[in-house]
Amino acid sequence: MSPAAVAPPLSRTKRFVVAAVSAINDAACRSDGTVNRRLVSLLDARVAASAKPFRGVRTADVPVDLSRDLWFRLFVPSSVSDGERLPVIVFFHGGGFAFLSPDSYLFDDVCRRICRTVHALVVSVNYRLAPEHRCPAPYEDGAHVLRFLDGGDLADLSSCFLAGDSAGGNIVHHVARRWAADADGGWKRVRLAGMVLIQPYFGGEERTEAELRLVGAPLVSVERTDWLWRAFLPEGADRDHEASNVFGPREVGELEEALPAAMVVVGGFDPLQDWQRRYYKGLRARASRRGWWSTRRHSTPSTPSLI
Predict the structure, then answer these.
(1) Rounded to a whole number, what is the largest CA-CA distance in the chain?
(2) Phi and psi dihedrals of 78, rounded to 5?
(3) In a 10 Å sphere around its CB, with 0-12 CB exposed, 13-18 middle and 19+ buried, how is residue 57 labelled?
(4) Could you name the domain of life of the organism this protein comes from (predicted)?
(5) Under 8 Å CB-to-CB from 77, ≥6 apart: which residues?
(6) N- or C-end of the chain: fewer Cβ atoms within 10 A?
(7) What pLDDT does residue 2 have?
(8) What is the pLDDT of residue 6?
(9) Looking at residue 240, what is its pLDDT?
(10) Where in the sequence numbering do the catalytic residues fall?
């Protein structure tokens, strides 16, 4: 098998960084199922919020429930006209449910670019992390943030999107279902217009063709994803739990009628790509009366096509 089939071409510097991150990640994930947070902090550079515009965006950290360290970072374009109504994107960061936060340099930069490019308000949620807080903690936190927004006057929430990458994409699905289950009169202001799942983190007990073929992929390996699922899922659960294998043998209930349209982004070198495609196909099969959006480009979102 050629190396190109396992990983995208990377410069020597990027290969070194990926190798270093992988090594520290592996060292931080202890055999007893806990995370060495002090070691993780060596890689997780943080960025403070700033009311002063930086790269065309202002930021502020907004507390929601300090008893569980639930808060979000708000990203606001620095150039907003009086009375202008901006769409709202509620964003859930990746990190295998166990790492990173909205003030991590990586996701501060990502959300800043989304805010500036899309010209939208971005609400980046600091949800509780595994293994200290297992499933369904991040789903509950995401729904709690929506309730917080629904009861305030932060923005016009009539055009609200949920977006997330990796574990954040998984959270998008489960939070959207919680919103949709109560959509008939249960929300005052929040109206979900769509979901964007970027290489969402799904899985199952089966080993798929991509997981076997891309066994040497950087960062996301079978061994690492297995460890993260054990750290996140309820004690005693396997990867066919409905949190990970949402349309698998333990699927819970039918999809809610109000569940919004979705765009699913699949990475060509992602070992989880087969699970992502199954999720997409599961949406289509269960939502034949609705228009679902999908894109299948390698690694990066592109213009979606209506199905």
Answers:
(1) 58
(2) -75, -20
(3) buried
(4) Eukaryota
(5) 56, 57, 58, 86, 115, 116, 119, 120, 121
(6) N
(7) 41
(8) 59
(9) 98
(10) 166, 270
Average confidence score pLDDT of the chain: 89
Average pLDDT (285-296) is 55
What does the angle CA 201 – CA 203 – CA 205 come to, to the nearest 5 degrees? 160
Pairing relationship of beta strands 160-165 and 262-265 according to DSSP bridges: unpaired
What is the distance between the alpha carbons of residues 121 and 196, in angstroms, rounded to a whole number? 15
Peptide bond into 63 cis (omega under 30): no
Question: Predicted confidence band at 7 (pLDDT cuts at 50, 70, 90)?
Answer: low
Question: Can you tell me the distance from the alpha carbon of 217 to that of 214, in angstroms, rounded to the nearest whole number?
Answer: 5
Q: What percent of the chain has pLDDT over 70?
A: 91
Q: Please give the model's pTM, rounded to 2 decimal places.
A: 0.91
- Give the start-end residues of each E strand in the chain: 57-65, 70-77, 88-92, 121-126, 160-165, 192-198, 262-265, 293-294, 305-306
Alpha carbon 238 to its chain's center: 21
Sign, CA torsion 88/94/96/99: negative
Q: Among residues of the chain, what percentage have pLDDT more than 90?
A: 74
Q: Rounded to an integer, what distance in angstroms lies between the CA atom of residue 171 and that of residue 262?
A: 13
Helices (H) and strands (E) in the chain, counts: 8, 9
Q: For residues 259-265, give the mean pLDDT.
A: 95
Cβ neighbours for 303, distance < 8 A, ≥ 6 positions apart:
295
Which residues in 5-44 are b (16+ Cβ under 10 Å) and which e? eeeeeeeeeeeeeeeeeeebbeebbeeeeebeeeebeebb
Tokens of 118: 């899309």
CA distance to 139, 159, 217, 249, 256, per residue, from 147 (Å): 13, 15, 39, 31, 19
Angstrom distance (rounded) from CA 5 to CA 9: 10
Over range 177-198, report the average pLDDT. 95
Q: Which amino acid is at 129?
A: L
Q: Which amino acid is at 105?
A: Y
